[in-house]
Amino acid sequence: MANDSIATVQPYEIVSVKHAEAPEGTEGTSWYHYVISQGSNTISGFRQGSLKAVTSAVEEIVAQLNERQLGKRGRVNLVPTQKKRE
User: Fold this and answer.
1) What pTM did the predictor assign?
2) What angle do CA 70, 72, 76 make, to 5 degrees?
3) Which residues 6+ apart lie within 8 Å of 31 measured at CB?
4) Burial track 71-81 (b if 16+ CB lie within 10 A, e otherwise)
5) Listing from the earlier edge strand, what are the strands of the sheet with 13-20?
6) Domain ranges (residues) in the chain
7) In angstroms, what is the C-alpha Rg of the chain?
8) DSSP state of 39
9) Contact residues for 64 (Cβ-Cβ < 8 A; gap 6+)
């Protein structure tokens, strides 16, 4: 019997980053359309900039999405306490 408590999680991956026309309602040049996938799920978006800058930004998005699957990153919930008055 398979161990159901351990889920196999597929990582997010960049499918493509391609030059595109400006999205409707925007202006400017140097737009790129990117597609990220995780199994059958896809994320599609537009970003403006050079191919190198857009690719780097999308790689960062993918890295952050994959980190989120592993759990929260070292966050501490600090609750301030009131100081006693003397």
Assistant:
1) 0.71
2) 155
3) 19, 20, 21, 22, 23, 46, 47, 48
4) eeeeeeeeeee
5) 13-20, 31-38, 41-48
6) 13-67
7) 20
8) T
9) none
Structure tokens at 75: 């966050």
Question: Could you count the other beta carbons within 10 Å of the beta carbon of residue 35?
Answer: 15
List, for residues 22-80, the tens digit of each pLDDT value: 999 999 999 999 999 999 999 999 999 999 999 999 999 999 999 888 775 555 666 77
Amino acid identity, residue 52?
K
Q: Which two tokens stand for residue 72?
A: 């929260």
Secondary structure E strands in the chain: 13-20, 31-38, 41-48
How far is the C-alpha of 52 from the C-alpha of 58, rounded, in Å? 10
CA separation for the pair 60, 69 (Å, rounded): 15
